[in-house]
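Lecture notes, part 5. Sequence design as translation. It can be helpful to think of inverse folding as translation between two languages: the language of shapes and the language of residues. The source text, in structure tokens, appears below.
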């Protein structure tokens, strides 16, 4: 598989598998942003949809009437009920991907995390991965976790790396290079997260994350900019060419997310990791294209797991 280095490549790759088009259950799609993403995905041709919400309203939408074979409707009167029904569709195999519509994130997560009827396996770790297309960078950059885990434990970081490396491999990168991000390049008890990083390096060397190269701590510039590490005397197979960044905590990851979007014009796509099926949680602040590519990213992950 040729590596996918842009969101345009992602769309083209998915269109190469029209017979394996994925089915997305959308919980309560009663906002313009969600509907725009669904309509764009229908036009792109990589997904079909089950819209769970007020069917009397949904059946009036032009893209619903124009795609009778690709859009079906399921009645639900409230966001809470729609979340439960959409999760049940995914859990039962009628849909491959779950997407949030017009509801608070905690409403959908309540259904996703239900111990009896949800999508998180027993003992699983729920986290979030972002794929970012940054102008001038030349390829997609993945990072975690900007949305779910405030201050990860070592066990959570380990689970995040397992999911991150698998997701990056689904983009055709056979051996992902993961940088463990911090403000220092030294392992020190003064910064407890760097002690976790030392253990993650050991686990990577033992094959815990499959075909992957994991190194750090290092800063973002050394991880992504060729030559920056050499200036600091850092010798690493990851420095300057990282495919993924494991951030130390949600604060660093979320600031990075907003910074590359605001000042670098990046387009970001993201989904939950750790669930039995991909879950797309678009933010109200995400661009329409970002929502579309989040759907595409989730469909790719499902396609690669078949």
């Amino acid at each position: 598989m040729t590596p996918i280095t842009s969101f345009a490549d992602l769309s083209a790759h998915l269109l190469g598998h029209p017979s394996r088009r994925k089915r997305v259950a959308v919980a309560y799609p009663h906002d313009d942003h969600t509907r725009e993403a669904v309509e764009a995905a229908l036009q792109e041709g990589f997904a079909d949809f089950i819209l769970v919400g007020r069917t009397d309203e949904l059946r009036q939408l032009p893209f619903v009437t124009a795609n009778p074979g690709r859009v079906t409707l399921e009645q639900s009167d409230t966001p809470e009920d729609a979340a439960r029904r959409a999760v049940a569709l995914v859990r039962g195999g009628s849909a491959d991907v779950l997407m949030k519509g017009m509801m608070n994130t905690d409403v959908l997560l309540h259904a996703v995390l239900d111990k009896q009827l949800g999508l998180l396996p027993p003992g699983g770790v729920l986290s979030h991965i972002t794929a970012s297309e940054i102008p001038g960078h030349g390829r997609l950059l993945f990072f975690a976790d900007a949305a779910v885990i405030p201050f990860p434990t070592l066990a959570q970081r380990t689970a995040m790396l397992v999911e991150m490396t698998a997701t990056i491999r689904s983009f055709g990168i056979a051996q992902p290079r993961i940088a463990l991000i911090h403000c220092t390049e030294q392992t020190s008890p003064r910064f407890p997260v760097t002690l976790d990083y030392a253990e993650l390096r050991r686990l990577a060397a033992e094959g815990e994350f499959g075909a992957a190269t994991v190194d750090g701590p290092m800063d973002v510039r050394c991880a992504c900019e060729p030559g920056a590490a050499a200036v600091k005397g850092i010798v690493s197979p990851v420095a300057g060419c990282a495919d993924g960044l494991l951030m130390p905590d949600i604060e660093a990851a979320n600031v990075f997310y907003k910074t590359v979007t605001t000042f670098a014009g990046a387009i970001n796509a993201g989904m939950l990791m750790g669930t039995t099926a991909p879950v797309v949680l678009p933010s109200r602040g995400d661009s329409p294209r970002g929502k579309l590519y989040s759907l595409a990213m989730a469909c790719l992950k499902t396609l690669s797991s078949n």
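The translated text above is only one of many valid answers, since several sequences can fold into similar shapes. The radius of gyration is 19 Å.
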